[in-house]
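We close this part of the discussion by returning to an individual protein. Part of our work consisted of pairing the sequence of a single chain with a tokenised description of its backbone. The amino acid sequence and the backbone structure tokens for this protein are reproduced below.
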Amino acid sequence: QVVLVESGGGLVQAGGSLSLSCVASGDSFSTYAMGWFRQAPGKEREFVAAISRSGATTTYADSVKGRFTVSRGNGKNTVRLPMNSLKPEDTAVYYCAAVRSSHHEAIYSSSGRYEYWGQGTQVTVSS
């Protein structure tokens, strides 16, 4: 089992940057593929980015490609999401998620695949 805690959210003007972090506690962080999702008010949770167990494979939603970068540090049980050129439509609660994976380079964009979720961190981008 793993417990996930996100941090780094806040209020920023359009065009600004924020960097989210997710720290995992529990066993064998390196056996988990990780993902970031977000949920805006009145909308369904949507995929943002995912990273494989090794960190070598990543994927992004088209809406954030080129602006967000996902990375992980297995030695520190951390996954990060630096976000640049933020837009008002990026406003949402951002969630970190984990799924145990037997494949080193598997990545998952479906929220239903994930087993563990953090409590979320609010990102608000003003226009």
